[in-house]
Specification:
Blueprint (H helix, E strand, L loop, with lengths): L7 E2 L5 E2 L5 H31 L20 H6 L9 H29 L5 H11 L4 H4 L1 H7 L14 H9 L3 H14 L2 H9 L4 H12 L1 H17 L2 H6 L8 H6 L11 H21 L1 H10 L4
Antiparallel strand pairs: 1-2
Helix pairs in contact: 3-7, 3-8, 3-11, 4-8, 8-11, 9-10, 11-15
């Protein structure tokens, strides 16, 4: 008998392996079916977008699982001047790229303060930060709209149709996720590292910048990617703060696509635009998937 595998060798020399309990086999099948259902549920919409984009415009409502014949007419229609889509991805990149570093700065300092400082009401502050992310965006977008349109005498600046009008409101919704994610990393790092650095002569900020922040780099990187994707996919703020076709983001531009007539919905064109907007994010996630998974897991295990 092999102690490592539990195999039993019979008199004839045949190897008899222990049978798996029937309950464990049934449980494995159920778990496998559950995972398969989740994968199909999550990937089916994306698959339908992929196969609908290369159809001919006249086959926008076709139910064929594979397009035949394959056409690029929908992709050409995306960049039609009437759709104002050519500049939209660049606008989304500027908004997401401007939002991410500002959110990281707020998230890093906020998370570090909550992880290292002991003060009365600390738990209440953490729950308050989470609560701010639960408010619907539609209820909070009106005050910034009035502010940026010159509705207050103490802020007589019209920021409508500007990048800062989309970036600043987005910053108010993204930090809660960054704070909670980074807080786990800072709490995981021993405080003795900072104390040792300060004994060697550095300041508390120097210990944070030279010792703690480099060690928390996986968490910062993961938070940056998640924040970038959230800012890239943001819709309501961009729709509210911008009415110029040249300043609208990709999501807003896609929502305003029109067909050949007033009552025609260009399904194929929107699917093609969705592929153009989504594929770069998928590539980014696939390239950095190890860092993302490693960063999310590192903050949960000490």
């Amino acid at each position: 008998m092999s102690a490592a595998t539990g195999e039993v060798r019979t008199r004839t020399g045949e190897v008899s392996r222990p049978k798996k309990p029937r309950g464990r086999t049934v449980g494995t099948v159920i778990v496998g079916l559950g995972i398969a259902f989740i994968l199909v549920y999550c990937l089916a919409p994306f698959y339908w977008m992929i196969v609908s984009a290369p159809r001919r415009p006249s086959e926008g409502r076709s139910t064929e699982l594979i397009p035949n014949p394959i056409s690029v007419e929908n992709f050409a229609a995306v960049f039609d001047p009437s759709n104002h889509f050519a500049r939209a991805p660049l606008n989304s990149l500027i908004v997401a790229g401007g939002t991410t570093p500002l959110v990281l700065v707020l998230g890093v300092f906020g998370a570090y303060a909550l992880a290292r400082l002991d003060f009365r009401g600390k738990v209440a502050v953490m729950f308050l930060i989470v609560a701010t992310s639960m408010f619907p965006v539609v209820t909070l977008v009106v005050p910034p709209l009035k502010l940026f349109s010159g509705g207050y005498d103490w802020f007589p600046v019209n920021w409508i149709n500007t990048y800062q009008a989309m970036i600043l409101p987005t910053i108010s919704f993204a930090p809660p996720l960054a704070v909670w994610n980074l807080n786990a990393f800072f709490r995981r790092l021993p405080v003795e590292l900072e104390q040792a650095a300060m004994v060697d002569g550095t300041t508390r900020f120097g210990a944070f910048a030279r010792v703690i922040l480099p060690l928390a780099a996986p968490g910062v990187f993961t938070t940056a990617i998640i924040t970038f994707i959230a800012a890239w996919n943001e819709f309501l703020i961009a729709l509210t703060m911008v009415n110029s076709p040249l300043m609208q983001t990709a999501n807003v531009a896609i929502s305003k696509f029109t067909g050949s007539s007033q009552f025609d919905t260009p399904y194929g064109t929107k699917m093609a635009a969705g592929v153009i907007v989504t594929v770069p994010l998928i590539i980014m996630v696939l390239v950095f998937q190890r860092r993302i998974i490693g960063g999310l897991a590192a903050g949960s295990v000490k």
